[in-house]
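Help wanted!
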Amino acid sequence: MTQPCDSNRPLISRYLDGELLESEAGPLRRHLLACQGCRTATQGDKALRRWFQAEAQVPVPQGFAARVARLAFAGAVPGDGAASPAPSRPSQPSEVAATAPSALRDERTLPFVLRMTAAAALLLIVLSGFLREGNIAAVDDLSADDATVPTLEELDLMLERLDETAPVPGAPAR
Amino acid sequence: MTRRDEGTGEEGSITGVPARAMGPLAMEKAALDDTSLVQETLAGSQASFQLLVERYEGRLFALARGYTKNAVEIEDIVQDTFLKAFGRLASFDHRSSFYTWIYRIAVNTVLDHLKRRGRSPVQAVEDPELVGGPRPNQSIAAPDAGLEREEISRITQEVLEHLPEIFRTTLVLREFEGLAYQEIADVLEISIGTVESRLFRARARFKDKLLALYPEFGEELGD
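Answered by r_m:
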């Protein structure tokens, strides 16, 4: 028989969790010696628990407690805007701006940065579109007296005339 | 493995000594220490609050680690927990122990933090029956001896992320924090019976999900 006994199955988890009194654990241990199903279930539960034992210790940053205490007494609030601390305390120089949680900084600045980046990209696209359309005259041709901007066709004509060594209108004399 | 038998130095108590291994007088002293520190903090002692933080920071870091691997997030969660606790210290009525009270704040802070980050934990109501309950013919093997500790931790975290929040929280408090059933019940404000039920289902879910994601860790039961 490999299935655990219905009556003892709940006890196995409690036993492994250290939740049984000795008066309950003793009979269960004796039962485990005789019942293959419950022994198998116990081994399975033990194997499952070992998946959690490998959890690495989380190092606490140096000075964490001192920093948190300092923040608390300086009036810092957690990310969800909890109520200000009630206890009376001597006045402390404000350190909130310098030591605000990185999460708060990220939440406020990241959307702003993304928006500015998107706006800059859009501006570049618009500017490049203008440049491609030729609406901006070449620097050499700019003049305060220029009343009109040549069209694309006119520019083509100008280039053809250049090829034919004809003077370009508005160009400095050669 | 009974309450009276344990005397190891495992984590899970107010002062690093297992609560279940401390005598009544020692437990009373520890409780008074927390009470004194709370009162002194309320009177304006930053040093007393720092002591409180030092007393519980390790355990709260471990708790947060059960929900995220990101070190920055863990630190933010724990810091927010202590700041919230500080803000509500005047309303702490000592009906529960300080560490039960701050654990409760920590669990809520973790869940709020994950929601803000767009990583809402899986929500589910209590199942009227075991969905995907223990597969009768398949057990789970212990982590392979050849697996690196980090890899085991990664797999465990991956599986935990698929669990409904109520199961994940119960498992984290029990397996990572080593809290007793009564302590878990106090933190989550549920009955011990509910704790047992959730743990049983949580472990079944964990096993099934682990086998679904990594079938190589399954073991067939003999007949």
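OP: Thanks! One thing I noticed: The mean pLDDT of chain A is 74.
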